[in-house]
Design a protein that fits this description.
About 60% of the residues lie in helices and about 5% in strands. By secondary structure, it is mainly alpha-helical.
């Protein structure tokens, strides 16, 4: 493998940008359209593997050239790569939150501190923030990835140095492989089936598998540079002195001449046409095929994958191993996979992947909150708005900040002192003005950041009001209900309905009480279908379960037909079960809604389906900034129930 890696000038391996571009597409779609690509989080493991490979190659080549890690160059280079873009992102996003949506500012001070210190992932773990819960997502939550990378950048020079010291033995490659195995085992062992996987997903120790495998791959790819140090350059020609003191060019001696290649080009066997070893020829033939099959497998995992037990007990391990094969088979010399991965759009996405990753998530949250207000007509406005804003932000960040910082220095971005041209001065003035304005806005945002989102505070207030109402009108609302007669399918009044639901129903409780006066509503935040049987049994035991049972519990977990059977059996054939489907961008919602629709179709006599998802899609302007809950005081949820029951009771009954 070591003799077959193909690179471009500048140290850039052909095809890696295309691989990063594909991984970025998976991650962005997972964040913004989770239902479309539920396994897109596997793209993170591809990125980790590529990152481990590239940083390993850089360190191993430095050791091969000079015997030193050259930390004086390594540390500033890593810092300049990561921090300038962050210093622009953070104040701009916090300012936007202060101006347009204060929900983005919840917990923002601690987020900023831990992001800049490179430990946001551990802060999120300690604070109980779930990567897979998008109910109240934090604006910099996606930067857990940067935290893991920063911590890896601190540790990897030591690992590379130890591997270099024992390079004559076969133990060197075992170091990253052993650490990779330990990381994979840690994720497997610490993960609790059915529980929140944030600890194992955010943890540097449990999610370092891809980084370590990438480091091991870098060790194998750079083997030729360790075993065959670059020869010193030999002059191509000599010049002899003329009698008059001038120099006469003498033709070069016809002998093998060692020509120094650029630092970033691997020397290949020269014109002696020495036959390559059989293993090298076999690898060149097999590697592209393995890379292609790995690509297909990774795409399949992204399309059909889920946040389930398999993902954390095997799926992430498999995706990391597939990433190694994809990288190795793509960078292999003469690999036909390179023709796929140099596809210009993919290459462009990979080239600017860091900036796109930084900006897409907070701008998606901002677009999701603002687009329904700007575009009340249903459509893909949040996604389009986020895409445009991200493209603009990434372009400005690259041209104004990242590129000047990489080519000159971080200081040159804001203070161009060394031979600045007019363009540099104008750029610096624009950046300085932007930074001053955004830092002022960020200071205001941090100082005025709320402790909770507006929806969270409204739900808590709604819960208090609902509880007070139930206590005040206990005699009217919870009075004993006689055994219902055979349903007549007449439109029910509020005193004939028991409603059991989650936070979506809680947000709609005022609307339900308005549309159905006297309705018995029992709704709480974070409820799932698991609580429904117990609540129904309690009402049955108290004799307070009414003839119409409204159940809206699909927001927080999947629902199965068996669970619906249990509820259906509990309420009996003389009551009507009214099922409300769910709305939101969660992987379990589409299959859950299908289960609810199928169940209602299979039990037409006493099961009704309310299509809340359709009503919410048709009226996005009435939803809160999270795109899930209706605004407090809205009766759209209740109206959807009312219109459905009207149709159902009037159809051939």
């Amino acid at each position: 493998m070591a003799t077959t890696a193909r690179r471009q000038f500048g140290g850039h391996y052909i095809g890696l940008d295309g691989i990063k571009g594909l991984a970025l597409i998976a991650i962005v779609l997972y964040h913004c359209m989770q239902q479309a690509l539920p396994g897109g989080f596997y793209g993170v493991d591809v990125f980790f593997t590529v990152s481990g490979f590239l940083i390993g190659v850089s360190l191993f080549r430095s050791l091969a050239r000079s015997g030193s890690l050259n930390l004086a160059r390594y540390i500033p280079k890593r810092a300049v790569r990561l921090y300038p873009a962050l210093f622009l992102l953070i104040p701009v996003i916090v300012s936007a939150g202060w101006l347009f949506d204060h929900d983005l500012l919840v917990g923002v001070r601690d987020q900023i501190i831990t992001v800049l210190l490179g430990c946001y992932n551990w802060y999120a773990i300690a604070g109980g923030q779930s990567y897979f819960d998008q109910m109240n997502p934090q604006v910099f939550r996606h930067l857990w990835f940067i935290g893991v990378l920063m911590q890896f950048y601190v540790v990897v020079p030591l690992l590379a140095w130890v591997m270099w010291k024992i390079r004559r033995s076969h133990l060197a490659a075992l170091i990253p492989l052993a650490l990779a195995a330990g990381s994979g085992y840690g994720m497997w062992a610490l993960y609790r089936p059915g529980g929140d996987p944030t600890r194992v997903y955010f943890g540097t120790d449990t999610h370092g598998l891809g980084l370590m495998l990438g480091l091991a791959l870098a060790w194998w790819v750079t083997a030729s540079e360790r075993n065959h140090p670059r020869p010193k350059p030999v002059p191509r020609s000599v010049r002899s002195a003329r009698p008059d003191g001038g120099a006469v060019p003498v033709p070069p001696v016809p002998m093998p001449v060692s020509v120094p290649l650029p630092d970033d080009v691997t020397q290949q066997p020269d014109t002696l046409h020495v036959p390559e070893p059989l293993r090298v020829r076999v690898w060149r033939a097999v590697a592209p095929v393995l890379a292609f099959l790995s690509l297909i497998a990774l795409v399949t995992m992204a399309v059909i994958g889920k946040q389930d037990d398999f993902a954390f007990r095997g799926g992430i391990i498999i995706s990391s191993l597939l990433s190694v094969l994809l990288i190795a088979g793509t960078i292999c010399q003469d690999s036909w996979m390179q023709d796929l991965m140099v596809f210009l759009p993919l290459k462009a996405l990979g080239t600017y992947s860091y900036g796109i990753y930084l900006w897409h998530w907070p701008l998606w949250l901002l677009a999701r909150a603002l687009a329904p207000k700007l575009f009340p007509v249903p459509g893909p406005w949040p996604l389009a708005m986020a895409a445009v804003l991200t493209a603009v932000a990434v372009t400005i960040s690259w041209l104004m900040v990242e590129k000047p910082a990489a080519s000159r220095s971080a200081l040159f971005v804001i203070l161009p002192l060394r031979k600045p041209g007019a363009a540099h001065i104008i750029r610096a003035v624009i950046v300085d003005v932007l930074l001053v304005a955004s830092v002022f806005g960020a200071a205001q945002g941090v100082a005025n950041a709320p402790a909770k989102t507006a929806m969270q505070m409204q739900l808590e207030e709604q819960a208090r009001q609902l509880e007070a109402t139930q206590k005040k009108e206990h005699v009217l609302i919870r009075h004993h209900v006689p055994q219902p007669p055979k349903p007549k399918f007449a439109m029910p009044t509020g005193d004939e309905i028991t409603a059991i639901g989650d936070s979506v129903m809680l947000a709609s409780s005022d609307g339900l009480s308005s549309v159905f006066p006297g309705i018995q509503t029992d709704a709480e935040v974070s409820r799932s279908i698991m609580v429904a049987p117990e609540l129904i049994q309690n009402d049955l035991a108290a004799g307070t379960l009414r003839q119409w049972v409204l159940v809206g519990l699909g927001t927080n977990s999947a629902i199965t037909a068996d669970q619906l059977d249990q509820i259906h059996d509990l309420i009996g054939p003389d009551r009507v079960l009214v099922l409300v489907n769910a709305h939101g961008d969660r992987t379990w919602i589409p299959p859950t809604n299908q289960v609810l629709a199928d169940y209602a179709a299979a039990h037409p006599d006493n099961v009704v389906l309310v299509d809340w998802d359709d009503a919410a899609n048709a009226n996005p302007q009435v939803l809160g900034s999270d795109g899930i809950h209706p605004s407090i005081g809205s009766d759209i949820y209740a109206q959807a129930v009312k219109q459905t029951l009207k149709r159902w009771t009037g159809e051939s009954r």
